[in-house]
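Hey,
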Amino acid sequence: MTIREVATTPFADQKPGTSGLRKKVSVFQQPGYAENFIQSIFDSLEGFAARTLVIGGDGRFYNREVIQTAIRMAAANGFGTILVGRGGILSTPAASHVIRKYDAFGGIILSASHNPGGPTEDFGIKYNISNGGPAPEKITDAIFAASKVITRYLMLDAAEVDLDHDGESRVGSATVRIIDPVSDYAELMESLFDFDAIRALIRSGFRIAFDAMSAVTGPYATEILERRLGAPAGTVRNGRPLPDFGGSSSRSQSGSCQGAL
């Protein structure tokens, strides 16, 4: 596998906020746009050689394509292990936990939070640091500074990684590990909350309805509410993440939850 230095020129609009860089999908689809921003992230960091990078997203349109790009670029830039949520799915809080649990150097999360998803809607890339939290202003400023002077990005010529099955593969000298995007976070929730008491409440007849709005919370809600807490099948509605969140501009990454007696 060959590492290529791809010549590029800066884009003037790549200043990230605390929630990363958010633009329309069509902006990110410009040749070199996502690559420039990802390389600018790496160029602003030090000490990540052979370390672990976490990659995942909220399942919105263009998520899978940018994950493949990020994997090849992370391998080309010297990361040793790349953890990716199965199917490209990894919610922001789940990614934060995975970063901490596996002592990762940081994580790239592809999300535009509550912003609508779809081919004509929004996309986002953000970087979280080793404590699982969003990059502080010092780092986002450095990313923006790097984006203004970038002349090349590093890309490994490699086949696409199978995102849909757990397991390991090699991309250049890096190990890519596809992980269950839900289990680590569900275990964390079980350690923080009294699941036995909640199960007893549900068994007593307390009813729950959770609308995941075809966004990233669906798999997490299904695992936690239905499988671990014993809520009836169907408690979670619209639980499968869709690239356009089911076509509603009001659909949110955070989902909604209602409880009723």
